[in-house]
Design goal:
Blueprint: H1 12-23, E1 31-35, H2 42-55, H3 65-76, E2 83-86, H4 95-105, E3 115-119, H5 127-138, E4 144-150, H6 158-161, E5 165-168, H7 174-185, H8 189-198, H9 203-211, H10 213-227, H11 232-268, H12 282-323, H13 335-344, H14 347-365, H15 370-381
Helix pairs in contact: 1-2, 2-3, 4-5, 7-8, 7-9, 8-9, 9-10, 10-11, 10-12, 11-12, 11-15, 12-13, 12-14, 14-15
InterPro entries: DNA_Rep/Repair_Clamp_Loader, P-loop_NTPase
Protein name: DNA polymerase-3 subunit delta
Organism: Microcella frigidaquae
Length: 392
């Protein structure tokens, strides 16, 4: 029987720690924190752990394989009665969302050995919200297991860090991610290797690049726009187009999900898709639409950051060529263009561009309009002004 653990790659030590914990109730810890860089598989590992906990003895070699399979399917669909998940697409996790989870955590599990509560992107909690969670972590019910996910333990307040057992993920290699795409998703090996490399081993993004030609085309446009900047006016025009690319990418990610959610909401209200919504029911749909708008805002912001990460790989490759390092390029598919650009520029300019990207990311996080931050970054990358250094 295929297990949830097989959906992971390059994380043998972390998998072993969680499998051992799930198999030994006496050694079980009731508060966990899974950390690792974006795309390393934090959420996948959390759900694999949840599956093992909820399956209990049925997951063993002598267990009920049919029951284990049903539990795995319920976890995959997020419908298991003893699983609660908080995954936000907003900028922050609200205090009310955490309060609801804390209330759920007090109930005994209904059919499984444990009640499992997963908070993805736990780093999006404010200190006040974190303190609400802290009270639940200090005295968890005996059969409730909390699993938090965050890029780093430092992203959570110290009092929470002191009450969780930390499992750290490493960055998987290009070969490991490519092998996963081939084995799990049936991707052709050469495409899997290119997608894993260009995604910089971010598993979710690698899958998207491998399966979505439009996503690959948008990424290629991003690189070409940056390589084509030769003037201040060119930087301004390129920044506008990069924001448009990020917005397109965000819409592609959210449009299908938004429609599915709306259709499901209409069915739950007893309406067919496309039917006129009675005035008495419009408030329910308006709340969904408000949530979708907040998610769209976050998705565009994440899209801008993906653009900057792709540009970071571009200038990193230029720097490697200019220094004659001999290291593999992230953007091997456009090596010819990169070699031309590397000869036209300098290592100093590439370093300044990398610094400027770091500044742009901080500025956008601080609510600077993305287009202004991108304009400043591209002007520096083109060598038209001194490097921005560590400006706020």
């Amino acid at each position: 029987m295929t297990t949830a653990w097989e959906e992971l790659t390059g994380q043998e030590a972390a998998i072993a720690a969680l499998r051992d914990a799930a198999a030994d109730p006496e050694a079980m810890t009731h508060s966990w924190l899974i950390t690792g860089p974006p795309g390393s598989g934090r959420s996948n590992l959390a759900f694999a752990f949840a599956t093992a906990l909820l399956q209990g003895s049925s997951s063993g070699p002598d267990g009920d394989h049919a029951a284990a399979a049903r539990t795995a399917a319920q976890v995959a669909a997020r419908t298991h009665p003893d699983l609660a998940v908080l995954a936000t697409d907003r900028v922050v996790i609200t205090i009310e969302e955490v309060r609801q989870l804390v209330a759920q955590s007090q109930f005994s599990p209904s059919i499984a050995p444990y009640r499992v509560i997963i908070i993805e992107d736990a780093d999006r909690m404010t200190e006040r919200t974190s303190n609400v969670l802290l009270k639940a972590l200090e005295e968890p019910p005996p059969r409730t297991v909390w699993v938090l996910c965050a890029p780093s333990a430092a992203d959570l307040i110290p009092t929470i860090r002191s009450r969780v057992r930390v499992v750290r993920l490493r960055v998987p290699s290009v070969a490991e991610v490519a092998e996963l795409l081939v084995r799990r998703d049936g991707i052709e090996p050469a495409l899997a290797e290119r997608a894993a490399r260009e995604a910089q081993t971010h598993i979710g993004m690698a899958l998207r690049l491998a399966t979505d030609p439009e996503a690959r085309e948008r990424r290629a446009r991003t690189l070409q726009l940056a390589l084509g900047v030769q003037s201040v006016s060119g930087a301004v025009a390129a920044a506008e187009q990069l924001v448009a690319i990020a917005t397109e990418d965000a819409k592609a990610l959210t449009a299908e999900r938004d429609e599915e959610e709306r259709s499901a909401a209409l069915r739950s209200l007893g309406l067919e898709p496309g039917a006129t919504v009675p005035p008495a029911l419009r408030a329910s749909l308006r709340a969904l639409e408000d949530d979708q708008k907040r998610r769209a805002t976050r998705s565009v912001r994440d899209g801008i950051d993906r653009v900057l990460v792709d540009l970071m790989s571009l200038y990193r490759d230029l720097l490697m060529l200019q220094l004659g390092s001999g290291l593999e390029l992230v953007n091997e598919a456009v090596r010819g263009d990169l070699e031309l650009a590397s000869r036209a520029g300098s290592a100093e300019r590439s370093l300044a561009a990398l610094d400027a990207i770091a500044v742009a990311r901080r500025r956008i996080e601080g609510n600077t309009p993305p287009q202004l931050a991108l304009e400043a970054m591209l002007i520096t990358a083109a060598g038209r002004v001194p490097a921005l250094g560590s400006a706020p």
